[in-house]
């Protein structure tokens, strides 16, 4: 199965170092599916803006992007200041950029997890007063390790999750949790890709995912790239298809899972979980370890991002609501643990009671 890693055709973010210096490269997700546009970002501010504006999005992908953004910031400083740069000044700049990255989006814990991991590495090297060029090199290696480990985690979630799928299953998914959202095959989409490659005839119902349409624009696009059969539906059609007996399971990802197994994910996920329970359909959440936040007791403590009302009042720049109308735009909701059948992680499948199974999953840290 490991050759599958090399067969991945879509990449959300990667690092390049060319004649002009280092760059964080992104597939601009705001342009999909109309155009495949690759961005080469050369300043940390551009990286932060790209995360905020959803050019790159999805919990593991924004963590990896922030890690690359920190490397970019120090590589740029080193290029500008050369011999004059001290380790202490480089570390001080690192801390400033870490704050910039932390301020981009509040809900996905992977962002904070990746920045924390980079900061631990930078702090250790700063204490040793290493040469700034060595600091940059080691930070790049750490960021690449975050990327590689996420790709491996996706593959493992895919293999474990595929075992839950039978030939001919129709499943429903929400938002985008695939190659565009991670450094590998995805979280909730990975089992579907792997099952498809194993020859199981899987059919995916894709929620369009208002207001930003990650399902319609991104999931439908990347499943099509891989030849996975799909049907795109609007968010309010899910109950109809469940009632018809068409849906065998729901697969979603998450931006943060708390110690008791509550799950924050794209707005609309909670509603799907309620519907799945009403129709006795299994509700699976696929998450890498980096999405599990044992420091929070329950979902009530998860900060929920409130986004620009224009995302609700316009579609692709066209107004669909009266000017000045009052709007709410929470980007995520919290699904309580009792609605979740299982959490698929790279370390195994966690079943209720999640307080116990998650503690076990995280025991190896
Ligand atoms: O606002 P987004 O597009 O970053 O939201 C993404 C999601 O909600 C995904 O379902 C989530 O990150 C988990 S899967 C990678």
TrEMBL record:
It is an enzyme of class 5 (isomerase). The active site is at 255 (proton donor). It holds the Pfam family IF-2B. GO terms for molecular function: S-methyl-5-thioribose-1-phosphate isomerase activity. It catalyses: 5-(methylsulfanyl)-alpha-D-ribose 1-phosphate = 5-(methylsulfanyl)-D-ribulose 1-phosphate. Catalyzes the interconversion of methylthioribose-1-phosphate (MTR-1-P) into methylthioribulose-1-phosphate (MTRu-1-P). This is Methylthioribose-1-phosphate isomerase. The lineage of its organism: Bacteria, Bacillati, Chloroflexota, Ktedonobacteria, Ktedonobacterales. The gene is mtnA.
